[in-house]
């Protein structure tokens, strides 16, 4: 008979099996359960004690029949008590799974969610016909990712294999072949990105998945640097693109949009300062300016860059061009 830790069932699985035996009124004791579950008698004793003392199941040992039994009917195995807030979090998590649909992670996340909620099935059910109506997600401009490419990249990241692919930078007419040591896949701003070490350029680069084509996973492996972390890599980026500089960006927002700015966490470095009259100043520390430039433009004339001067000049030039275009 197999024995040892590598063959042991998880504790919850053992307890569910014990519960089923007791619920159907089977004459069972530690010896029978230990044999059926392929564990030691002491393990069964601990499991039953936990079920009786911690889960409040009505288990008693009947010496007349030399077996355990429930003193009264038990319809369902007890679960951890779920508060209203925790239940809402589960419902939101179920809804949020949809943003991963079409990726290899979706099925694994579904399985994990089903395990978490499995013990609630007698009281709560989740099905496509019962989508949560009080919570919804709407992401504008969802990125497109080819599943063949995504699978190749994710496999290379997990197994630390170098990869080659064609990459077309924005504005370029043709793609160039790149050889990369893939460190990390990141889903940011509704788009998947690959962070990797470009061997030809000897530097870390960020690649948008929709611009990648013809990937080839190579046999050569690499070791991801122990000091690499996505949090550190994206620390000075507003969204995706960081940089080597250290800009202190200060933007003043009009009272009309101040509350909308105040309601969100835009960046880890952000500082807010209320201005007399209802305006609001937002300060950030960033490594590059292109992303913040585009972001400021989305606020129209409700946002004014105070610092740095370089960003003010760039926006002045854009405003001049727009004025000519819409004259």
Rounded radius of gyration (Å): 29 Å
Strand order in the largest sheet: 6-5-4-3-7
The computed structural class is: alpha+beta
CATH architecture type of the largest domain: Roll
- Beta content: 15-25%
Number of domains: 4
- CATH topology of the largest domain: the name is SH3 type barrels
First and last CA, distance: 86 Å
- Helix and strand string, N-terminal first? HHHEEHHHEEEEEHEHEEHEH
Output the number of helix runs: 10
Morphology call: elongated
Please describe the biggest sheet, giving its number of strands, its sense, and whether it closes into a barrel: 5 strands, antiparallel
Mean pLDDT: 82
Number of strands: 11
* CATH C-level category of the largest domain: Mainly Beta
Task: Give the gist of this structure.
This protein is α+β, with helices and mostly antiparallel strands. It has ten helices and eleven strands.
């Amino acid at each position: 008979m197999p024995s040892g830790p590598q063959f042991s069932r998880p504790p919850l699985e053992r307890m569910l099996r014990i519960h089923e035996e007791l619920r159907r009124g089977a004459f069972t004791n530690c010896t029978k359960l230990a044999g059926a579950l392929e564990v030691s008698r002491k393990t069964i004793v601990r499991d039953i004690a936990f079920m009786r003392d911690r889960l409040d199941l009505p288990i008693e040992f009947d010496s007349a029949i030399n077996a355990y039994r429930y003193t009264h009917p038990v319809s369902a195995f007890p679960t951890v008590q779920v508060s209203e807030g925790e239940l809402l979090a589960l419902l939101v998590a179920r809804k949020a799974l949809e943003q991963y649909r079409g990726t290899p992670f979706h099925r694994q996340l579904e399985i994990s969610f089903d395990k978490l909620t499995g013990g609630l099935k007698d009281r709560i059910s989740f099905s496509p016909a019962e989508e949560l109506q009080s919570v919804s997600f709407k992401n504008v401009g969802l990125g497109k990712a080819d599943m063949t490419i995504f699978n190749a990249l994710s496999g290379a990241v997990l197994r630390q294999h170098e990869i080659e692919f064609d990459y077309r930078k924005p504005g370029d007419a043709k793609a160039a072949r790149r050889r990369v040591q893939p460190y990390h896949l990141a889903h940011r701003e509704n788009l998947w990105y690959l962070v990797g070490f470009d061997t030809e350029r000897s530097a870390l680069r960020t690649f948008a998945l929709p611009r990648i084509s013809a990937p080839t996973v190579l046999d050569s492996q690499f070791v991801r640097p122990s000091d690499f972390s996505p949090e550190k890599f994206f620390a000075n980026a507003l969204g995706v693109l960081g940089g080597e500089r250290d800009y202190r960006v200060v933007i003043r927002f009009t009272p009309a949009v101040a509350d909308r700015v105040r309601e969100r966490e835009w960046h880890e470095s952000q500082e807010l300062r209320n201005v007399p009259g209802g305006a609001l100043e937002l300060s950030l520390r960033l490594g590059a300016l292109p992303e913040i430039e585009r972001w400021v433009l989305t606020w129209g004339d409700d946002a004014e860059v105070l610092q740095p001067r370089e960003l003010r000049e760039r926006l002045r030039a854009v405003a001049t061009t727009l004025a000519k275009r819409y004259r």
